[in-house]
Every structure is written in C-alpha cells, then in structure tokens.
Amino acid sequence: MDNDAYLDKYRSYVRLTEERLLTLCDRYLPEQAEISRAARYSLLGGGKRVRAVLVLSSCELAGGDVDAAADYAAALEMLHCYSLIHDDLPCMDNDDFRRGRPSCHRQYSESTALLAADALVTAAFEVIANAPLSADSRVRAAAALACGAGARGMLYGQELDKHFEHHRADAEQLLSLHRHKTGALILAGVQLGCEAAEAPSMLRQPLETYAREIGLVFQIVDDILDVTSSTEALGKPVGSDAENEKTTFVTLYELDGAQAMAQQHNDAALAALEPLGERADFLRRMAESLLVRNK
Amino acid sequence: MDNDAYLDKYRSYVRLTEERLLTLCDRYLPEQAEISRAARYSLLGGGKRVRAVLVLSSCELAGGDVDAAADYAAALEMLHCYSLIHDDLPCMDNDDFRRGRPSCHRQYSESTALLAADALVTAAFEVIANAPLSADSRVRAAAALACGAGARGMLYGQELDKHFEHHRADAEQLLSLHRHKTGALILAGVQLGCEAAEAPSMLRQPLETYAREIGLVFQIVDDILDVTSSTEALGKPVGSDAENEKTTFVTLYELDGAQAMAQQHNDAALAALEPLGERADFLRRMAESLLVRNK
Predict the structure, then answer these.
(1) Ramachandran category for residue A239: left, alpha or beta (phi over 0 → left; psi -120 to 50 → alpha)
(2) Where do the TM regions start and end (chains A, B) (predicted)?
C-alpha cells in the first residue's frame, strides 16, 4: 500500500464516520435541546478520528461489515468527545480552546458543556445498543467500551492526570497515566472493530498489542509536539506542559530520548502485526503516520 | 396486600439492590481510584431506591427473575446517582448537601465529583451489558436506559430546569421539565423491569402509564414538601425553591391545588393498573406511599 492509497483509505473511513455521526446526531441529539447543539458543536468540529478509523480498519481487516461498524466508530468518537469536553472544564484543565475554536464551555456555558458531554456518553451507548449488528456483538461492544472508558480505564487516567498536576510522576506512573487516559480508548477502537466483525482471538491479540503500542506513540508524540510545534499548527497553545510544570515524556527523557521511545513503541506495534501479513498494511501506515505527524 | 406486607416487600427489594450494588462496585468501581471511592460515597449513601424498586416489582409482576433483574435495578440507581452528583455541582444547582451529608464535590473536590459521576454512568451501561440475562434483553434495556437518560430524556430535563431558573415557566413548561427530569428515569424503571422479564406489550403499556403518572406525583409532592416539611426531615434545605424564585407546582397552583393535582395523577396511575388485577397491589401501595410521604 503506497501513501496515496493509505490517505485515500483513511479519508474514506473519516467520510463514513462523519456521515454516520450526522445521521446519529439527528436521531439521538435533536437540535431543539441546547445541550444537543453544544454536543454537535464539539462533536462535528473536526479532528483526526483516529479511534473511528481504528474501528473501521480493524473490522475490515477481520472481514466484517464496515458500514455496520460505522455505528461503533461513531459511538467511540462520541465517547471521546465527551471526555474532551469534561477535560476542558474549569475544574479540570480549564482549557479555553480545542481544535482552534473556543472549547464547549467557552462557546456555550459551563452547565451546558457539562450536560452536552453527558448527552454524548449516553448517546454513545444508545448507538451501540441499536447498531445494525447481532445482539451478542452489541453487548460485547458496549462492555468493551464501558470498560475502556470507565473507572478502570480512561476516567482513572483523567484522575491520574489531575493528580500529577500537583505531584511529580516517575516513569512508571507516567506510563500508567497514559495507558489509561489515552490508551484505553485506542484499545477500545480495535476491540470495537473486532466485535463488529466477530473476529477470532488469533486476530484480536495482535490488534490489541498494536493498539496498546500506538497509544503510547500517540501520547509521546503529543508531548514532543507541545515543545516543537506551533500554536497555529496544533490549534491549541503549545508550551502549556512546561508552563504547568507537567511531567511529560520530554521532561523525563529529553527530546531525543522521547523520540527514541516513540520509535521503540512503533517497532513493537509493527512486530505485533507481523502474523497478519499484507492485510495489516493499512495499520502499518497508520502507525507510521502517528509517529511522524506534526499536528 | 396490607401495609406491613408492602413494607416488607419494599425493604426486601431495597436489600437486594444494596447487596447487588456492593458486588457491582467491587467489580466496576475498584477502590484504588479516588473517583471510585467518591462514586461509592454518593451511591451507597442511602436513598429511597424508588427506581430500583420499580425495576424489581415490575419484573416480578411480569413473572421475570428478580435476582437477575437486580443488575438492571442497580444500573438504574447508578445512573440516577450520577445525575444527582452533576446536578449538585457549582455550575448547576450548587448544592452543598445531599441526603443529609456533604454533596460529592464538597466531600471530595469538584473534579473528583465530575469524574465519579462519569464513572457511575459508564458503570451503569457496563452492568447492563454484562447482566445475567439474554443479549436481546440487555440491548433493549441499554437502549431504554440511554433513551430515558439522554438528550431526549433526563438531560433535557436538567437543561430545562437550569433554563427556568432565570425564566418564568408556565404550567405546560413545568410539566415538560418534570416529565423529562424526573419522569424519564421513573419510566425507565418499569421499562427495565419489563425488559428483564421480556414482558409482553399488554403488560408494558399499563406499567408505563402508571410510571408516567407517579413520576408527576413524585415531583408535585417534592414541591409541596419544600414548603411544608423541615430541613431535618428531608436531609436537604427546605424553602430553597422560594428562595430561588423557582416556578413550582405550589407557586402555580398553591398548596391545595398542588395537593389536588397530585391526587389526580395518583388516580390516573391507579386506573392504569386496573387491568392487571391483584398482582399490581404492590404498585398500588407504592403510588399511595409516594403520595402521602413526608420526606
């Protein structure tokens, strides 16, 4: 797969996700409610849709119905968006901008943002419950999403992130923070793809290892970009980690060390895909693009 | 069914719910996370468990397995508890007390309370996804819960409630507010009970009408108690509605009018149960107890 073919494929997954999100918003987030309008403002405001693309590409790799899996992909993006809205609130990171636009509570109000995010997490589970896949697939998908998103997954990561604003994290704690905060939903991406395709465990295990590794690559590169990129390119302020005296992969390992570490986790991701042969080419390209991204 | 038999039954439903909540907390809200400890603080802090009792009694009425339905009952209480925690936050009602104890964000912190509630809503859907019932029952239960809790249900009610802090509500708007804010989860109670029992629609329709009516009774009596009861009896400040210049059933209809209205909705609830005969006796007693409650 050359780079053009990869980009075409990526864009087609994003397009499918965006279309499905619109359809599902009309069904579950009707515009007469302000909280629905606020949810749409944040949800439909762009983004890389990495998690959705993982759902769709894992599903396709496992021979599943990509169109049906788009409901799971959309649900995961809804859940991710809810976590960003709550993360931006004044009592959390107090971020005024997200993706180059005012964050939800700045555009609307704090109470509206709170409830808009609540509406998104609820809609995510409603979308899964009503997806055009078998009931067995849907309950397993809901369980996987809840596990990744809950107090043993992403939310625990958000707690750790808040905690380590005021406490110095060591290397192990930083890894645990990111495995929970970002990694758990990246992992849920391939899990939802596998549930959509009802994939056998010989496919699931390599895909899950791959997801765990690229989840770390993603975060390490985030930390690097906070030092090396520009506010314009990222659509959010750079240098905020240093300003907040946050422990990051860069503060622990310097730029070169962090870059080497990202490379190492990328290698581990690729090694996991080895047994899957050519059909994992898209995921290989995707790992690379996460490693060398500049925004 | 005499009053003692009713109370015994009610207590047995509450006991089953509390036991199941403890088991499920150990599984889904492990105590090493502070957000889990905060979630347990609010979740296991008592309450009437009206919604859980509706799940269990509807399930039993429809001939289902009450023990299996306890997972749905627990999930609904988790979801209700999350809504209370977010409702108490400074950007919402800014309430310092709940059930006679400091509210979650007063006992912990605002960020911990935010995430604790998020953990509860997520756990609610995880509990349903993994409940010991058929996959068909579980996806329908998840869909019903999400529909009642989301932007077309409870969350829209929370938005209306916030909106009408600053705007005068007329009678129709007040009804809509409460049908969404409180009514939607009361309705979800009987729906989850019916899903647990895989009840036929000839049972569902009377039970749903009953739930809609007692949901209003519940709220009207709440408004009455805010005027007539004591802070000690309620475990929360009385007179807060008047202080906040809130439109309530009492401000619209005076005490006598509100009392008559509660009676009228109670009568409608009982009328709906007519076709179900004796087996609905528990629900009849329950409606009465909601009507005459003093806390």
Answers:
(1) left
(2) none
The CATH fold assigned to A3-292 is Farnesyl Diphosphate Synthase (1.10.600)
Report which of A141, A282, A274, A161 is spatially closest to residue A223, judged by C-alpha positions: A161
Q: What sign results for the dihedral spanned by CA atoms B152, B157, B162, B164?
A: positive
HEC profile of A174-232: HHHHHHHHHHHHHHHHHHHHHHHHCCCHHHHHHHHHHHHHHHHHHHHHHHHHHHHCCHH
CA distances B212 to A164, B145, B205, Å, are 46, 15, 11
Quick: pLDDT tens for B184-233: 999 999 999 999 999 999 999 999 999 999 999 999 999 999 899 877 77
Task: Take residue B30 and report the two structure tokens written for it.
Answer: 């492990």
CA-CA distance, B81 to B45, in Å (whole number)? 10
Global ipTM = 0.96
> Which of residues 93 through 152 in chain B touch A, CB cutoff 8 A?
109-112, 114-115, 118-119, 121-123, 125-126, 128-130, 134-136, 138-140, 142-143, 146-147, 149-152
DSSP B61-110: HTT--HHHHHHHHHHHHHHHHHHHHHHHSTTTT--SEETTEE-HHHHS-H
